[in-house]
Design a protein that fits this description.
About 40% of the residues lie in helices and about 25% in strands. The chain is an alpha/beta fold and about 450 residues long. Among the domains are: about 130 residues, P-loop containing nucleotide triphosphate hydrolases (Rossmann fold), CATH 3.40.50.300; about 55 residues, 2-Layer Sandwich (Methyl-cpg-binding Protein 2, Chain A), CATH 3.30.890; about 100 residues, 3-Layer(aba) Sandwich (Trna Endonuclease, Chain: A, domain 1), CATH 3.40.1350.
Length: about 450
């Protein structure tokens, strides 16, 4: 098989796939639509070809394509069987497989009947529901894919970092594009805050009109295919009210980084007059709102972060926060204008922590809050995010909860303007752009 075009590398994800190449688990790539899952499959196929695997050993199927549009599980099985090269190990790449009814039966049969290495993608978290996990008995590894990080954004848009000496004795980062034009780092970061990290924007260019068209396509596809048209599933409420769904999406997008109670969302929408469409006289039930939010989380457009009581050492059930997977999508939904930069920075830092392999929770200590507790197998880190650390009032507010924590894990405040001090009694003050590029 030939790879028709050159794809920008996403080494963070590609290296994970390569690490699990030729191992038994099914490699499952999940993430919002258009975040680069199909391109990642192409990159992995190119890696195999470069590694000496013959093209006849690679079977690629995209179930968004009309060619495979109405495949059943049995037809999928028979099609793959007909393509197997005798005596050769096969590599199966099955893109957006959730569109095949009972697809897990075919995948399980491939695993049992064929000498093969299996890679699948899906744009809905239902792909890894308990039913599926039971079917494959835990024999799968999930690779969660996100839109571009700021570092990847620079690469995809043809920017590179040039470091020069600064007047203070350190170094200063300048951004240079393919034409040799120079930009301030903050200027390019502002473009990232405006356009977000959907890889397709690199193809259309940093034009607000073209970006809006692309983001409208992403949003419409997520809402229509992954939410409103999702098949009836056991124990799951169907999402039928498109007006309510959009209002909840707008509410969550407008309240990223704010503590949100599911029970209050319906009442807030009613009291703000946002559901007065002539039909609804009372607030939707908490159960209904929760079902709609669950559908949004399943489609990876929003992520929920739980609160963790640092002293009590337990997750709390109340008042989590929601972050949107891409700031460009938020701007598409709410309009391109400067708003609540602090929460936008929080949103970007949250997803960067996920990319770096951390489990993330919101920290609660007494009646104060720490933006993020980031943990992995080896370390824990406490992170505050703020726009600036230059005033005494802000420093007091951001440092106070961190100063209450008595353990020796790293404590860090990330800001666009950290001021001159880099350390407050062991608490680091770090420029957020340096951290994003580190």
């Amino acid at each position: 098989m030939a790879i028709e075009r050159t794809y920008k590398r996403r080494d963070l994800y590609l290296n994970k796939l390569i690490a699990f190449q030729d191992t038994e688990p099914v490699k499952v790539i999940t993430g919002i639509r258009r975040c680069g899952k199909s391109s990642l499959l192409k990159l992995m196929q190119q890696h195999l070809l470069d590694d000496g695997i013959a093209s006849e050993q690679i079977i690629e199927m995209n179930f968004e394509s009309h060619e495979f549009h109405r495949f059943s599980s049995d037809e999928l099985y028979e099609y793959v069987k007909s393509k197997v090269a005798p005596g050769k190990r096969m590599y199966l790449f099955l893109d957006e497989i959730q569109r095949v009814p009972a697809w897990e039966e075919a995948v399980n049969a491939f695993r049992v009947d064929l000498d093969c290495d299996i890679y699948i993608t899906g744009s809905n978290a239902y792909l890894l529901s308990s039913e599926y996990a039971t079917y494959l008995s835990g024999r799968c590894i999930e690779i969660r894919m996100l839109p571009l990080s700021f570092k990847e954004f620079l690469d995809f848009h043809g920017f590179r970092i040039s470091e020069t000496a600064s007047a203070t004795g350190g170094t200063r980062k300048t951004i240079v594009d393919d034409n040799g034009e120079k930009y301030a780092l903050r200027e390019v970061f502002d473009a990232y805050l405006q356009f977000g990290g959907m890889p397709g924007i690199a193809d259309v260019g940093l034009s607000q009109e073209r970006a809006l068209t692309l983001l409208d396509g992403v949003y419409s596809t997520v809402v229509m295919r992954d939410i409103l048209e999702r098949e009836k599933r056991r124990g799951q409420r169907q999402i039928t009210d498109a007006v309510l769904l959009r209002k909840i999406i707008l509410f969550l997008a407008d309240n990223i980084g704010s503590s949100v109670s599911t029970s209050s969302i319906g009442n807030t929408l009613i009291s703000a007059g946002l559901l007065e469409d002539g039909k609804r006289k009372s607030a939707p039930s908490t159960h209904t709102v929760q079902a709609y939010i669950s559908a949004l989380l399943e489609s990876y457009i929003f992520y929920e972060v739980k609160r963790f009581d640092i002293k009590g050492k337990e997750l709390l059930r109340t008042l989590g926060k929601y972050y949107i997977v891409d700031i460009g999508l938020r701007n598409y939904l709410l309009g391109f204008r400067n708003r609540d930069t602090g929460h936008v920075l929080e949103n970007i830092v949250y997803f960067e922590l996920l990319r770096r392999g951390y489990d993330v929770a919101i920290g609660k200590i007494d009646n104060q809050e720490i933006d993020f507790i980031a943990s992995n197998a080896n370390e824990r880190m406490y992170v505050q995010v703020t726009e600036s650390m230059t005033t005494e009032e802000v420093r007091r507010r951001e440092l106070a909860p961190l100063q209450k924590i008595r353990d020796n894990y790293r404590k860090i405040v990330l800001s666009l303007d950290p001021g001159l001090e880099t350390n407050y009694e062991g608490i680091e003050s770090v420029q957020v752009l340096d951290w994003l590029l580190s």
